[in-house]
Amino acid sequence: MNSSRGEQRYVAQFTTGNIEVTKLGEGFLDGPEDVVVDTDGILYTAVRDGWIKRMHKNGSWENWKKIDSDGLLGIATSKEGGLIVCDAEKGLLKVSEDGVVVLATHINDGSKIRFADEVIESSDGSLYFTVASTKFGFHDWYLDVLEAKPHGQLLKYDPSLNETSILLDGLCFSNGVALSREEDYLVFCETWKYRCQKYWLKGTDKGKTEIFIDNLPGGPDNIYLAPDGSFWIALLQVASNGLEFVHRSKLSKHLVASFPKLVNLASGVKRKATVVNVAADGKIKRKFDDPDGKVMSFVTTAFEIEDHLYLGSLNTNFIGKLQLNPTNS
């Protein structure tokens, strides 16, 4: 099914000034958490009802592939065509014109892959992906916040061996993952630690980790490599006095566990939108912040292509698009 959707433009009150945000696919999408664009310029997103939807270069939308799941999260383009998809329940999937293939459901040690969150493909076909929590699932993720213990993983899928191995364990809600331009390291996000770490893939430091950036003004969600070698990181507003109170109080933990929507009130996660551009040296270069969430909130992804930034969110029915370097008319 194809759907033509007219673009609606809104002015967002970002801290960097008034920036025009175009709403793509408004009303056709339900919580587009992640966004990617392939080499043909086709935009893809996975939504809550299990559809992977795509927007063609002429602006028309299409229901592309349906997966029996309400836990589709991170997506990545594949050099062989199609997409790699993280399904929080099933594991790692390959989706193409030919259909859906399950790539990985278990790790080499026999344990099931739980809560696959975000994925990236390297030039040799290896897939690096995160598991947000080995203890809690997508629908009770807030319990991971409450327990405040590290249950996340960084995994590698080797297509030549059809095996999945653990690179790192004991991470604090490991989320987005991105390769450097030279693919000598990757950067992964730890949401509850408000930091991103670097994991070396090559060189004398291969297998070692180091802090890429910490003390972020929010919990990092997805991360994408920008054309200039920097990284775009979407930040969730989980650092608040309300959430700290929940962690200190057993009664508050019980209440939030019983009524999970309270965690949104405590953390302010749906109240605003923040994305940062971080250079390869770990220094913030740019920041876009819609403090009142008037146009967008709960932004989970920022993907740059052709001088535009595409914004995904679990709290909207559209994808936001903004021009990074608008010219004055």
Automatic annotation (TrEMBL):
GO cellular component: endomembrane system; vacuole
GO molecular function, one term: hydrolase activity
Name listed for the protein in its UniProt record: STRICTOSIDINE SYNTHASE-LIKE 4-like
InterPro entries for the chain: 6-blade_b-propeller_TolB-like, Strictosidine_synth_cons-reg
Keywords for the protein's UniProt record, in alphabetical order: Glycoprotein, Vacuole
Primary residence: other
Subcellular location: Vacuole
Location of the Strictosidine synthase conserved region domain: 120-203
